[in-house]
Design a protein that fits this description.
Strands 1, 4, 5, 6, 7, 8, 9 and 10 form an eight-stranded mixed beta sheet that branches. Strands 2-3 form a two-stranded antiparallel sheet. It is α+β, with helices and mostly antiparallel strands and about 170 residues long. It is elongated. Helices cover about 30% and strands about 40% of the residues. It has one domain. It contains four helices and ten strands; from the N terminus they run H-E-E-E-E-E-H-H-E-E-E-E-E-H.
């Protein structure tokens, strides 16, 4: 009976250690895609931001952008390795490059831009992605913190987002 308890305890202990070891391993995106490390968004841009825009039917609606330390709207951001891209993407055959683009279509790159940041596809084919830039705006005569959301090479302002839905409605 004693041997059985010792055996059972040993099995449970080693299973527990194995599970603990699995839980401690960091979850990584494959290094084969040229990821250096997660991109850290500027602190001033983090949080929930609300902006007013028209939906596909032309009706004004409030949209939300959630920016965390390493993601925008649950899309994780990473810093790409330029050396990797020069070696394995830019100088690869068209077939290999297209395969790489297909494999990485859900991976996004983050880049610093002024006081904000830029989000782009892992392999940028066209356009300059989306810019998130903290600014100060006047709403009803008061200065408030806002987030300029812009696109293109300009970057051209698409919307201003605010910390509350009420401010987004008032700012129009």
């Amino acid at each position: 009976m004693k041997k059985r308890l010792v055996y059972l305890f040993s099995v449970v202990f080693f299973v527990f250690l194995g599970l603990l070891q699995l839980g401690l391993k960091p979850q990584k995106v494959e290094a084969a895609y040229g990821i250096l490390h997660p991109y850290s968004t500027p602190v001033a841009t983090r949080g929930n931001w609300y902006y007013l825009d028209r939906d596909s039917k032309g009706i004004q609606k409030i949209y939300t952008v959630k920016i965390t330390a390493h993601a925008v709207d649950k899309d994780k951001l990473y810093v790409p390795s330029q050396k990797y891209f020069e070696k394995h993407v830019y100088n690869a055959s068209e077939k290999k490059r297209n395969q790489f683009i297909e494999k990485t279509k859900n991976i996004y790159a983050g880049y610093n831009y002024k006081k904000g940041f830029n989000v782009n596809n892992w392999v940028s084919l066209a356009g300059d992605g989306v810019y998130y830039i903290p600014v100060t705006r006047k709403v009803k005569g008061k200065k408030v913190k806002a987030l300029r959301i812009a696109t293109g090479a300009g970057p051209y302002t698409a919307a201003y987002a605010y910390k509350t839905k009420k401010l987004a409605r008032l700012a129009k």
